[in-house]
Structures are given as C-alpha cells and as structure tokens.
Design goal:
It is a single chain. The chain is an all-alpha fold. The protein is 73% helix and 0% strand. It has 9 helices and no strands.
Amino acid sequence: AGLMGGMLALGVSKLVGAVMEKLDQAEQNSIANDQLKRKLGDVNVSFSALQSSVLNAAKNNHLLFSEAGQLAAQFAKVGNISERQYKSLADEMGTGVGMSRAFGLDPAQGVNALASFRGMRVTGNDQDTRRMALLIGETIGKSDAFAKSGEVMDALVDYTSSQNRLSLNGGNVSGFAGYLSAMAGSGIKGLGVENSAALLNRIVTTLQNGGGAGEAS
C-alpha cells in the first residue's frame, strides 16, 4: 500500500508538473503575442485574430507555436508591417519558411530576406511576397547555386538596399536577378555567386556615377 501510494503521488506530481509547464508556455506565448500586437500598432489589431493566425501558421508550417511567434515578430520588425497589414503577416511569414525549407536553409533566413523586400517597399502584400519568393527560387535554379542559395538571397537584398539608398527606389530586381543567374550559371571560372554579384554592383555604381573615369569611360 505504501509503495502504491508513493507511485500514485509520483504520478500526480508529474501530472501537476506537466500542467504547470504547459501553463507557463501558454503564458509566454500570450506575452509574445501581446508584444507582437504592440509592434504592429496595437490599437486596431485584434489580439485573438493575431493569435489565431500565428497558431495556424505554426500548424501549416510544422513549427512550434513559440517559433512561429518569433518568426512573425521578425517579419513584422524587418518588414515594418503596420496595423493595416497584419492580417497577411502569418501568410507572408509562412512563404519565407517554405522558401527556406525548399533550399535547406534556416527558416529565419528566408523570412528575413522576404521581410527586407517588404521593408524597402519593393513588395506590398502577400501576393508580391510570393512572387518575390518565386523570383528568388528561379534565380537560384538558373544559377545552379543550390548550395549557395543563401548567398543569392543576400545578393538580391544587398542590391535592392543599395538602390534604395542611392536612388530612392528598389531598382530593377528582376533584371539584376537575370544577369546574376546568367553570370553565375555560365560556368566561367571566378564567376560564382559572390563574384558575379560584386561585379554587377560595381557596374551599376559606375554607370550611376557617370563612368569610372569621366566621359571617356
């Protein structure tokens, strides 16, 4: 009887511990969603709708709820998502996760890349984000640079960022992507993704500055 009582007490203790752990996790998730709500502007953002969308994103992308919350917060911060746009946040974050997994990358890398285009206003909604993901995927495929897919993403983001600073627009991202894939996929020695991107950026900068050595160039 003493042994059975001890086993019962141990079982109850484990059950209580598991319940407390779940409650603690739920509390942390609620706090994270509240912080995300405030980042989005708070006033016109429904907490329950936001929580539901993040939960659905977690299920659809096979993520822990806490992971989905962190990625959604990352997309909102980098993409400068406002309260008027929060309803598409979970879908856009999911697009970044799917793109990352397609190329064997950490989910955060694809989410950050697509959020960067959103923050620079090259994309403006979830459809634009999906189209950008397709452009990135096509560039990686034509470059034959699946092992360098992260570098391709970084190259496109860097080009767009530099164009935003120099000319206050996103530049011709699709044109840059086409030249990058043609050069990197040409098989010419020395023209990998990194060198091709550097050469293209140098060409663009030289043209914008009126030539490397004045009119004669």
